[in-house]
C-alpha cells in the first residue's frame, strides 16, 4: 500500500499577488510563472482586441 496517491486530482494552481512564496517548491514557483505568463498573454490579447474595436468605431464615425 502506497501513501502517495498519484491518481488524486491535482489542486488547481492559483496565485495571489503579494503572497508569501517561502513555502513553495521550485516546481511550484515555475508553475506559477507559467500561469502568470499565460494570463498576461490573455490580458494583452483582450486589450488588443478592444483597442482594435475602438479604433474601428472611431474610424467609422470620422467618415
UniProtKB/TrEMBL annotation:
<protein>
    <submittedName>
        <fullName>DUF1192 domain-containing protein</fullName>
    </submittedName>
</protein>
<dbReference type="Pfam" id="PF06698">
    <property type="entry name" value="DUF1192"/>
</dbReference>
<dbReference type="InterPro" id="IPR009579">
    <property type="entry name" value="DUF1192"/>
</dbReference>
Amino acid at each position: 500500500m502506497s501513501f502517495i496517491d498519484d491518481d488524486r486530482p491535482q489542486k488547481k494552481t492559483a496565485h495571489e499577488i503579494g503572497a508569501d512564496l517561502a513555502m513553495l517548491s521550485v516546481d511550484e514557483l515555475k508553475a506559477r510563472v507559467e500561469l502568470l505568463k499565460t494570463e498576461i498573454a490573455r490580458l494583452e490579447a483582450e486589450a488588443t482586441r478592444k483597442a482594435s474595436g475602438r479604433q474601428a468605431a472611431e474610424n467609422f464615425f470620422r467618415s
